[in-house]
Write the structure tokens for this entry.
Amino acid sequence: MSFRGEDTHTNFTDHLYSNLIRNNLKTFRDDDELPKGGDIAPELLQGIEESRISVIEFSKTYAHSKWCLEELVKIINCKVEREQKVIPIFYHVDPFEVRNQKGIFEEAFALHEENADEEKKDKIRRWKTAMREAGNLAGYHVEDSYESKIIDDIMEEIHGIIPKVLDVNDNNVGMDSHLETLISSLNILLNGVRMVGIYGLSGIDKTTIITALHNKISNRFRSISFLTNVREKSTKDSSIIKLQQLLDDTLGVRGQMTLKNIHEGIKVMKDRLSSKKVLVFLNDIDDLRQLEHLVGKHSWFGHGSRIVITTRKKYLLMAHGVDYLFEVDKLNNVKALQLFCSYAFKQHLPKKCYRDLSIHIVQYADGLPLALKVLGSLLFRKGVKGWKSELKKLEQVPNMEITNVLKISYARLDDTQKMIFLDIPCFLKGNNMEAVTTILDGSEFNAESGINALMDRCFIAISKDKMIEMHDLLTQMGKEIVYNECPNEPLREAGYGDRWMFIEY
């Protein structure tokens, strides 16, 4: 920020600076961020060079300061040499007078030119050239308009130039098609409020997808909140914490507001966000109350707002009335091989002597990105003998890193749902849906409710020919759970009325 302190320090400059800091934008101004008492010029010049944006506040006495004019020359040089963005603000001065050094600016330069030697005259010419170039740039004229509105407009422009970018792994095969579909479903150009729900199996890359989506579209929004791991602490207090974070992010009030309870937070949201365009991401929702507390209704948010939600449970999205549902499918064999190889070989194709082993691993992972990444990383730089050993081990014992993620959803099933889940990999996978329902109903299970619960959590799917399908890694996990319940018995016994069925593990 280049400004003349005596003109704007305690009003416009301070308000703009406070907004920048609240939005976590590192900002240099010579009376705060830079050390005092020494040779300040080098630090200021370094601050200008390292900045992506320079804000120049032309005010009535700006041109009287040699220091401001030296800053101005450096800023214009960085604009040319480093493609730095320059935003001029004409604070109660005429932009025409700035461009052409007329009026008060002409008077200021006349004072500089008094008794100037050739060296100083050359410096003054550089000052004038820099001021002329800056004055010709599109900027903001602060005259009779509300300063708060001008600051809002400046902040929106800055957010468009420097959107907050979240870390996303570069090895994301198939991401482009996901983003294309989601961006189309969000329909950002529409003026209404829109909620989009993303669901799928654990480990299917929902978090990676919305992180990449955030980076793709965040530059179109000024007020953004990205709430991670909403499921992890599903308590009354955690809901208040998440709501506090959402309000801090979207209102820029971090540290200025403390919520006493959920109801107070919802009221603040309705009052303050109903006229504000926001972008909100809720990652890993596990309970309908979380949606009710954080993004209860479309009317809570201003026109143009977009809400993106991820969950393992499809029915939560349907119950909340989201506008668009997007299921993340497993990767096809070609994309799965590319993803696996990007971790196992740091390239998209397998090395010649590893080709058959790679295909075998990809078949085992069955299109689940988590498994492909974990196994690719595990096998990186191992020899063929090591690959064969790991593959043999996987066929006998599931990889615990993968299984632990899949078990998170299983642990949240009720007892009846768990029993039905375990019966599917052991007995019922690949069978006709109607036949399975008849068997389960005969065992005094509520078949329809249990099967629907498993489908909603993406544990199972029903094929076009009405057969029950389950991901291979879930099948392996289910059998492993059964085996661990009866480690000394090679057979599992399950009763269906008077019928007994056995499965060999």
Remarks:
- The two ends are 70 Å apart (CA to CA).
